[in-house]
């Protein structure tokens, strides 16, 4: 039986291959990336949802009503 | 052959799944849309509450006015035993306001020697019960004890709509309906005859924030307050619903990718059994 080695081109391009070369190939970089990603996603998601919440409920919340009380 | 059977099983499973989902959905829809025609009651109309949206918070200004209505009108007969003054702090009142409200109330308590005393309330006190017990409440109200209002918003069909309709729905009884002395006619109350006479009137109270206290304004505000009491976690709940709904797409991408990654091996395998000469399987007869 003859094994034919698939022809892998050394020049990879695209986001996927970049991510593989610099992030997902080693566990250390993957761990750093996923930790940073978790913090970033948590922060942005909270910011975005709070902004949406405060926009649709403008003027109705206690923090706003509090300012109108002498 | 095997693949065809597997595909057939998969299609069957999908079909069963869709049918089950449609059946469950249809059942829920049918139960929701029931006519309740057997009840001797007028069903409350739907109102556009500012907190009824999926991601809508309470209108706290309205809740605050509702507390004024409760305190000046409802509290004369109805207790709110699950609500304590501390619940108001930084949710609908400042700490000073809540302390002042508590201090205005007279609380039945015990002193150090176990004697019953009356003292001004503090933040950890519950809203005072107007009657010593249920029998005293019934005796003072023609035999019908006024129910506790802590959870009333969630305890009646129609919720806020029902409370609003009931409070603003007093009419003269139609011919043929007998209303006893001390009772009132209200078509939104099951049976039509209610022990509570009309309580809310235009300019019946005066709001601190200067809002004109019409009957419907008071009914709206006290409905909002009662809903706030029944569901103090309402705003937090809806905010978390929003956050989780926003997070689901990200989780879905990770889970779908992970599933496909793990299944790649299984899905791309192909097994072939080739008979080796001299080791053929036994022939079927």
UniProtKB/TrEMBL annotation, chain A:
Record-level GO cellular component terms? mitochondrial inner membrane; respiratory chain complex III
Q: Name one Pfam family in it.
A: UCR_UQCRX_QCR9
Membrane topology is: Single-pass membrane protein
Location, primary (coarse class): mitochondrion
| Localization of this protein | Mitochondrion inner membrane
Q: Which SUPFAM superfamilies match?
A: Subunit X (non-heme 7 kDa protein) of cytochrome bc1 complex (Ubiquinol-cytochrome c reductase)
GO BP annotations, alphabetical order: mitochondrial electron transport, ubiquinol to cytochrome c
Keywords, comma-separated and alphabetical: Electron transport, Membrane, Mitochondrion, Mitochondrion inner membrane, Respiratory chain, Transmembrane, Transmembrane helix, Transport
* KW Amino-acid biosynthesis (keyword) present: no
Alphabetical list of PANTHER family matching this protein = CYTOCHROME B-C1 COMPLEX SUBUNIT 9 (PTHR12980:SF0), UBIQUINOL-CYTOCHROME C REDUCTASE COMPLEX, SUBUNIT X (PTHR12980)
Biological role stated in the UniProt entry: Component of the ubiquinol-cytochrome c oxidoreductase, a multisubunit transmembrane complex that is part of the mitochondrial electron transport chain which drives oxidative phosphorylation. The complex plays an important role in the uptake of multiple carbon sources present in different host niches.
Which family does this protein fall into? Answer: Belongs to the UQCR10/QCR9 family.
Quaternary form? Component of the ubiquinol-cytochrome c oxidoreductase (cytochrome b-c1 complex, complex III, CIII), a multisubunit enzyme composed of 3 respiratory subunits cytochrome b, cytochrome c1 and Rieske protein, 2 core protein subunits, and additional low-molecular weight protein subunits.
This protein is called what? Answer: Complex III subunit 9
Q: Where does this protein come from, organism-wise?
A: Pristionchus pacificus (Parasitic nematode worm)
Gene this protein is translated from: WBGene00275009
TrEMBL record, chain B:
One Gene Ontology cellular component term attached to this UniProt record is: mitochondrial inner membrane
Q: Which PROSITE patterns match?
A: CYTC
Q: Which InterPro entries match?
A: Cyt_c-like_dom, Cyt_c-like_dom_sf, Cyt_c1, Cyt_c1_TM_anchor_C
Pfam families annotated for this entry? Cytochrom_C1 (PF02167)
Q: Which domain of life is it from?
A: Eukaryota
The cofactor(s) it depends on are:
heme c
Any binding details for the cofactor? Answer: Binds 1 heme c group covalently per subunit.
Q: In Gene Ontology terms, what is one molecular function of this protein? A: heme binding
Keyword Mitochondrion assigned: yes
Q: Which Gene3D superfamilies match?
A: Cytochrome c-like domain, Cytochrome c1, transmembrane anchor, C-terminal
The UniProt record gives the binding positions of heme c as 74, 77-78, 196
Q: Where in the cell is it found?
A: Mitochondrion inner membrane
Assigned keywords, A-Z = Electron transport, Heme, Iron, Membrane, Metal-binding, Mitochondrion, Mitochondrion inner membrane, Respiratory chain, Transmembrane, Transmembrane helix, Transport
In terms of PANTHER family, this protein maps to: CYTOCHROME C1 (PTHR10266), CYTOCHROME C1, HEME PROTEIN, MITOCHONDRIAL (PTHR10266:SF3)
Family according to the record: Belongs to the cytochrome c family.
Protein name in the entry:
Cyc-1
Q: Which organism is it from?
A: Pristionchus pacificus (Parasitic nematode worm)
Which taxonomic lineage is given here? Eukaryota, Metazoa, Ecdysozoa, Nematoda, Chromadorea
Identify the gene encoding this protein. WBGene00203480
